[in-house]
Amino acid sequence: AIVHGQKTYNGVAILSKSGPTDVSTGFGDGGDESQARVIATTIDGVRIISVYVVNGKQIDSGKYAYKLKWLKRLENYLAAQDCTAQLAICGDYNIVPDERDVKNPKDWWGGVLYNKDLDAWFKRLIDLGLQDTLRIHHKEAGIYSWWDYRMLGFPKNNGLRIDLILATNKLAARSADAGVDRDERKGEKPSDHAPVFAEFHD
């Protein structure tokens, strides 16, 4: 396991049965690295990047402005990667990719998780040569990874898909399956997120 965390708030980690190599944390761009939100390593020839994207809290807040700046740094960081190699970028993106990924799009549009700026940013990410692994196998709406604890969000499947595994075309070509493990959300005192997974052929 490799871990990059801070007390109470942020943290990212990668666990593997094989030994990690070439471990790095943060963007390495000389900017603010006070928040533990990025860790990367190479495992069995696949570069894996784990991210915890800034939430933003409110659209008119300084935290949302920080989110946009942080996303630009992430975009630059990923653009500098070798997107012709086997690469996966996994984590809580705090972004709704499109209207299939939210139960009530009109209720969420214009907020800190789903708006025109984030929509454009996500499209630029895909244009780098990345694929949303879940959408390789599932085109339908209604697959979510987060549900509010309130108002029976999970039983009503009133959720969002904000946890993603993106893969370069070379890695995506080996994609065998991808999805969300809803069973992990059913336990006693669960997280409001469910684990997402992607499987690849050898």
UniProtKB/TrEMBL annotation:
Residues 4-193 form the Endonuclease/exonuclease/phosphatase domain. SUPFAM superfamilies: DNase I-like. Keywords: Hydrolase, Magnesium, Metal-binding. Gene3D superfamilies: Endonuclease/exonuclease/phosphatase. GO terms for biological process: DNA repair. The keyword Transmembrane helix does not apply. InterPro entries: AP_endonuc_1, Endo/exonu/phosph_ase_sf, Endo/exonuclease/phosphatase, ExoIII-like. Residues 177-202 are annotated as: Disordered. One of its GO terms (molecular function) is metal ion binding. Its cofactor is Mg(2+). Residues 179-192 have a biased composition (Basic and acidic residues). Belongs to the DNA repair enzymes AP/ExoA family. This is Endonuclease/exonuclease/phosphatase domain-containing protein. It comes from marine metagenome.
